[in-house]
Design brief:
350 residues, alpha+beta, Aminopeptidase, 10 helices, Acyl_CoA_acyltransferase, GCN5-related N-acetyltransferase Rv2170-like domain-containing protein, Acyl-CoA_N-acyltransferase
Length: 350
């Protein structure tokens, strides 16, 4: 199955993604986000239209896959994949049909040939963390998985062909596992998340903040605090490129709660300082960012605008926030590392 490069404005790709909403929501958002480097590749297993007019879905095959790949984003998420096999009605079963499976493997084979650009200068410190982790832990422990630490999240940088694949549907992860490209020793392969979907029209109204607090956007001076509250590696440059909503103390101008709309449109880094929890602020922050920035970005054929969030299983507090927003857990997804060194001829044996 052939793989084609698409421009960001590809009407064929956008028509395909729209027809697959809300299941294609990650890739729909990511292909539209302005944070895009010259090293980004937008790929699909169908060609781009030569017309500037919106393409008919008749030009799109029944089974297809598409991806957004940017290796220069390391150690952050470099890859998002969507395939029609993720739609529950596609094959009538939970397993991917042969056509969708081959489409995913064709993408992996193609991506194994894409050159690896240099790491962005802002992320060079991550390499030192990776080297130190390799020195401290030359081999994985008996469990087969490195214990979580800042170094663990960077360790794969020592292997240029290992890619961080984000918000990946559980069935696509299973395909990666079956063909041997999933790297189990790195974080993610055992950590499931629930994909929550929200209809913008069903979101609650944004409530007023408690006395002494104000709304605002997260500023460069706030980013160090944001990064200190999460173990997930995100650069200052990336965070500043995202739409954000913050809650600030009026007296001190200090951020006490915040969230961002991720590169793939998901609710990202939602956090409330401990002293301000239990006041409904997290729900208000999430509702505000979706209402302010999400409408119009992922609209299906029936006119429904969608937003979404990923919550690790067992994170009761975040699940409660998502459900209070009217969200429903629709499927399981993962953040994993896959090894493109092991790809190249996968589709030939599919």
């Amino acid at each position: 199955m052939e793989v084609y490069e698409h421009p960001t404005s590809s009407p064929t790709l956008q028509a395909a993604l729209k027809s697959a909403l809300p299941y294609s929501i990650n890739l729909t958002y990511r292909t539209q986000h302005p944070n895009r480097t010259p090293d980004a590749h937008i790929l699909a297993t169908f060609p781009s239209s030569t017309s500037s007019l919106p393409s008919s879905t008749h030009e799109i095959p029944q089974c297809w896959a598409a991806a957004y790949l940017d290796r220069s984003m390391r150690p952050e998420t470099e890859l998002w994949i969507f395939s029609t096999g993720e739609q529950p009605h596609h094959s009538g079963s939970q397993d991917f049909c042969p056509g969708c499976r081959k489409a995913v493997l064709s993408l992996l084979d193609y991506m194994s040939t894409v050159p690896v650009p240099p790491l962005h200068p802002d992320n060079l410190s991550a390499i030192e963390l990776a080297k130190q982790h390799a020195k401290d832990h030359p081999t994985p422990p008996p469990s087969g998985n490195y214990e979580l630490s800042p170094g663990t999240y960077m360790r794969h940088l020592l292997l240029p062909k290992v890619v961080t694949l984000g918000a990946c549907h559980h069935a696509v992860v299973q395909i990666c596992r079956q063909v041997g490209v999933l790297r189990n020793e790195f974080p993610g392969s055992d950590n499931e998340l629930n994909k929550f979907l929200f209809k913008i029209s069903d979101l609650p109204e944004v409530r007023e903040l408690p006395e002494g607090l104000r709304w605002g956007e997260m500023r460069e001076q706030d980013i160090d605090t944001v990064k200190a509250r999460t173990s997930i590696p995100r650069s200052t440059k990336t965070l500043l490129s995202l739409k954000s909503v913050g809650v600030f103390e009026k007296a001190t101008d200090t951020a006490v709660a915040w969230t961002f709309l991720g590169l793939d449109g998901s609710l990202t880094t939602l956090y409330t300082e401990e002293a301000y929890r239990g006041k409904g602020i997290a729900k208000a922050v999430a509702a505000k960012i979706f209402r302010q920035y999400a409408p119009g970005l992922a609209v299906d054929g029936d006119g429904n605008a969608w937003s979404h969030g990923d919550v690790y299983l067992g994170n009761v507090q975040s699940e409660s926030v998502c459900r209070s927003l009217g969200g429903n857990a629709m499927w399981r997804c993962f953040w994993v590392r896959i090894d493109l060194e092991r790809a190249g001829t996968l589709a030939m044996t599919a």
